[in-house]
Input
Amino acid sequence: MQDGPAQLIIGDYPQVTGAEATSRIMEGALSLTPEHLEWLKAWAAETHGATF
Amino acid sequence: MFGSKRTLGRQFPARSTLSALAVAAGAALTFIAASPALAQADLDFAGEEIELMVPYGPGGGSNTHNRLFVLGLQQTLPGQPTIVVRNVEGGGSITGTNEFAARAEPDGRAFIGVGSSTILNQILRDPSVRYDLGEFIPFLSSPGGSIVYARSDFAGGLTDDPIENIRKAIENPPTIASQTITSSDIGMLLSYDLLGIKPKVVFGIGLGESRAGLERGEFQMRHDTMFSYGDAVAPLVEEGSAKLLFTMGYEENGEMVRDPMVPDVPHFLEVYEAIYGEPLSGIEYDVWKSLFNVRVMAGKVLMLPAGTPRKSSRFTPRRRVTRSNCR
Output
């Protein structure tokens, strides 16, 4: 495999491995609370007329 | 200096692809080796099949990403098992992920490659979602940044100063393209709004079409992933037809830093503070940060099913493995 094509897929970003580090990332990604979601829905409706 | 040749002409340095793959494979092996069935088999995967669920179609970036790591896993795992990639697309990745949650056994023979949309479906409470990613066991995350740029002739002509250019975008709302509000674009659209840019958004436009639309002048500003930067964005900047405005940034050791692929370009939080004189805070920051995590830091994640043992040291072969005893 050539490095060039792989660069297009993973870029310059360090690959995060292991349970602790990846779990922290997933916790951050799943951190939207019900209060945040309500705020986001209100924002989407007000600024883009979108509902979800 | 923003817009220097160092950034614009940067050829992304060749990192060691094989070493990256080996790290990924090693991370996977830590978990797979801890599974009851395979531990008893002395970690010889010869003749074994391990299934990688890809809840996307065979043509997209998530599929390509997953297949890149398949090569490393196949070459590194003892006995060189066959990794079978199964694409189950539909519902914006919900169909395949639901199936994985319902059927994948926590025996080390199944894992899934999810993307931002899989996470968004859950956190935006899509009623079709039957999975809980918080219960899956992640073992590799591939971050991926995003960049915002605009036509150089926009708003009477842009300069080399991104803050000045953003002020022009605030005063002259651009027309932009987006896929849907519930796609990973939502973090970008929120970023624009928080900065005070109120674009006219044309929804239902895919990435390729929006790139072409910008070049034709139908759109004046757009965002893209950094994986597309070298091919789709850098040439426009180098020929002078586009200017880079900001990136979403990148988180390193808990600190927001500039995107490592374009370190001369300011990130969103920097730009916000430069324009408003104070950092973004409150619920606006909390929501933005959540969406940043989804789009950038958890752009692509490989995960094992819920219940897969986390550490072999906690593994007892004849003990039933549950979430309470494996964490």
Summary: Chain A has one domain: 3-48. Chain A touches chain B at residues 1-4, 6-19, 21-23, 25-33, 35-37, 39-40, 43-44, 47-48, 50, 52 (CB under 8 Å).
